[in-house]
Recover the amino acids of this structure.
């Protein structure tokens, strides 16, 4: 169960970096075509701060000028050495540029020898998300399908972070996020609880401390825990750090570099 729990902890943190709300139409886009954000995840419990994963988020455009955002989480050597476990998850989100809501999610999920490919299609006319998952190693096996009702703007685990970056965050504000994962839909309460100075690999920055309630019965993760995300209080609205606390340990994910797609970048200072 240790292997399974650590993998889920990693992707919980992916969600933390992807938390979002959509009460208002975005007034400005603080990211550009080609923007790439990279992160490192470290797990602390018995051993302090072991590196377990690298994460990357990249923005580009597709036909019709919609956004395509690709997120990838990949296990690192320490995880393999300690637990003999590797994983790779790649999520590709197609997002409507006009109203900034997810239209399609394509996922490639590898856990050691297990491989799953899936697609979620969001039909706002029929108010339904349809999720289909296949095992590429068993092409004759019937696909797994899940369909759920959706109301209004919905996000997946990737599109949310970019929606959040376009909203007027302020201490004391509360929101409710509607997020879909694997065909299911969850309401996630989110609070902006503080404004704090954070020392990051790209410099010292003032950030909003955002706390999404994703742990507990009926929530995205049905276990005890807590999470925090720090978003810069500037025009870029960069998610620079997240922390997830659970019974199996604490996962910290911190930004390592930022590239704007035009040759300008900020990189971790070693």
């Amino acid at each position: 169960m240790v292997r399974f729990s650590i993998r889920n902890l990693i992707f919980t943190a992916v969600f933390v970096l992807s938390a979002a709300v959509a009460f208002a139409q975005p007034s400005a886009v603080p990211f550009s075509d080609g923007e790439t954000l990279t992160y490192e995840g470290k797990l602390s419990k018995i051993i302090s701060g072991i590196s377990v994963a690298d994460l990357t988020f990249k923005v580009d455009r597709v036909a019709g000028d919609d956004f395509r955002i690709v997120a990838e989480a990949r296990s690192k050597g320490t995880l393999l050495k300690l637990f003999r476990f590797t994983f790779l998850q790649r999520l590709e989100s197609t997002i409507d540029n006009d109203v900034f809501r997810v239209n399609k999610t394509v996922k490639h999920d590898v856990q050691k020898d297990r491989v799953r490919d899936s697609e979620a299609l969001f039909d706002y006319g029929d108010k339904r998300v349809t999720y289909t998952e296949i095992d590429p190693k068993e092409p004759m096996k019937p696909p797994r399908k899940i369909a759920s009702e959706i109301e209004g703007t919905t996000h997946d685990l990737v599109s949310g972070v970019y929606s959040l970056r376009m909203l007027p965050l302020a201490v004391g504000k509360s929101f409710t996020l509607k997020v879909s994962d694997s065909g299911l839909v969850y309401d996630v309460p989110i609070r902006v609880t503080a404004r704090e100075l954070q020392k990051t690999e790209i410099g010292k920055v003032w950030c909003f401390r955002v706390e999404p309630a994703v742990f507990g019965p009926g929530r995205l993760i049905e276990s005890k825990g807590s999470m925090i995300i720090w978003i810069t209080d500037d025009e870029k609205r960069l998610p620079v750090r997240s922390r997830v606390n659970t019974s199996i340990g604490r996962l910290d994910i911190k930004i390592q570099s930022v590239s704007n797609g035009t040759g300008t970048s900020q990189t971790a200072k070693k």
